[in-house]
Amino acid sequence: MSPLEFVAQFPNHADFSRKSRVVLFAYYLRQYEAATQFGSPDIKRCFQQALLKEPTDLATLLASLSKGKEAPLLRVKAGQHAISLYGVNEVEAILPAPVAKPGAPSGSSLLAAALPFLQKTIAKVADAQRRDFLAEAISCLEVGARRATVVLAWIAALDHLHDFVLAHGLTAFNSALAKQPGKMGKIVIAKKDDFGDLKESEFILVCRSAGLITHDVRKLLDEKLGFRNSCAHPSSIAVGDSKVLSFVEDLVDNIIAKHPI
Q: Could you tell me the pTM of the whole model?
């Protein structure tokens, strides 16, 4: 997709401010050219290829868009920037949903339309290894391996939460863990491998008890864990495309993106 085609997706793009267009092109460079960093010349090229007048104060705009706790851009080094999680969310909040091609079989039209959206969703994941892992999970959908997608996406989300606890709440987690009855109360987490001593449901329970996740997030995790369990074992339940797509989107948006490490 060219910068011109990308901008043409937005019916009201003529009303966008210069700053909004810069963020749009930062998103384009990350999503469609796999550019994790960019400079003024890259953004300038996007304006030119989209047949739009380029800002004369582009360097100033980039600097302005990189200031603040929730800035849409990040300053990586002198002359180089990257789109932030907030910038990704800003663009995807207005990004039109992909349209399935007419005549496609009904069973595949949803998946064909949703795959590009899922690829945009996992672009929100900051950790490169986890992002690649999720990309592999989504690729399973292309061959109809829905259960594999669910299992792999769950592993990625739980792995992220393990890192989150180690980075931001290990003391609180161990304190809450010590208050649990029986063998659970004797477990102490010192390193990542120690989480293997807990069942996944127990890990979620202690995260909530320690105040590391909200009540709503715990409910979401319990629901997703139940669905993962159904997919991880032979069962008669039907695993539909929409259910799998919702599963991945919920884990990325509500677990990984909202609990940065």
A: 0.58
